[in-house]
Amino acid sequence: MDTALIPTGRKRKRLRPPSFLSSYSREASLLGLITLIVVVTSVLYPTFCTWNNFVAVLNNLATDGILAVGMMLMMVGGVFDLSVGSMVSMAGVVTAWFMKKGGWPVPAAVVSGLGVAALGGLLNGFVVARVRVNALITTLGTMLVFHGIALRIGGPGIPSLPASFARVGQAEYLRLQSSVWLMLFIALLFHLFLTHTRFFRQYYYLGSNPRAARLSGIQVERLQMLSFVIMGLLAGVAGIAYSARVNTAVSNVGAGAELRAITAVILGGASLTGGKGRIVGALGGVLFTGLITNVLIISQVSSYWQGIIQGAVLVLAVALDSLWTRSRR
């Protein structure tokens, strides 16, 4: 007798074994991978598991962490933004230009830089939500526009920014620079938004089924535009914080940041189809990619191979997301 068959009235139904991919937690698995990396690398390289190295890793991933928070919000809502890396560069350069060339006070320059980044996000949101151009095409185009603006204004970069500006960016508490604490504050804020406010929880419905969300009365276009504006604003925060940290506005500092943010968010539990993900998962993904980069540097792996490995991680993350989605269906 075939024990895999059970009677169901007129027909027999073959039972399927439970799928491993449908029963495990992406976040728990990511935590397990991070733990494995720390243990193995600590054995191979004793300098890895030190407070100095850990501090260096956190200080270096603060920019990507801020971007990942905004990207998680967007991907929960079913969209993404490829222009955020260029927006990081543009916001930092514009802020520095206002301070160095325009002679503006630091607070006014910072507000202006954030305003430019938010306007960039608004442009993306308008084209995607109102004009209904695909987000991939829209943000790929604006990525080139923002990158060109950054190069046109800043050239190779604007060094030696005002001391008061750099002092804020280089301030430390528990040896962690202010950008790390800013990242943690932003992550906590948006975690509370997504889990405890009715307005932001609408993004989960929007990402799961935009048509049903619209029929239920959710303002789909408004939510999409807002997510792009928030993403632009956070990209501006990341770019300005980085400029303050290194006391220089670099015109191409955001190169590749959009792919790192998307990789971290997918590893952390988001889906390309939208409707799921948590901020804590985004931070876990950023930590994972940061540790991988740190291991490659300690291992003295060529920078060329680092790019190849990081690209492979992105492909693997998308493949796992596809397998996860199919197993759920």
Helical content (DSSP H or I, runs of 4+): over 70%
Profile the largest sheet: 2 strands, antiparallel
Provide the β-strand percentage band: 5-15%
Outline: globular
Strand order, biggest sheet? 1-2
Mean pLDDT metric: 87
The counted number of beta strands is 6
- End-to-end C-alpha gap: 30 Å
What letter string, H or E per element, gives the SSE order?
Answer: EEHHHHHEHEEHHHHEHHH
Given helix and strand content, the structural type is mainly alpha
Q: Figure out the total of helices.
A: 13
| pLDDT < 50 stretches | 1-24
Radius of gyration: 22 Å
List the helices and strands and how they pair.
Blueprint (H helix, E strand, L loop, with lengths): L4 E4 L2 E4 L11 H19 L6 H26 L7 H17 L5 H25 L4 H20 L2 E3 L3 H7 L2 E2 L2 E2 H19 L1 H11 L1 H6 L4 H27 L1 E3 L6 H11 L11 H20 L4 H26 L1
Helix pairs in contact: 1-12, 2-7, 2-8, 2-10, 2-11, 2-12, 3-4, 3-5, 3-10, 4-5, 4-10, 6-10, 7-8, 11-12, 11-13
Short description:
The protein has 13 helices and six strands. It is mostly helical.
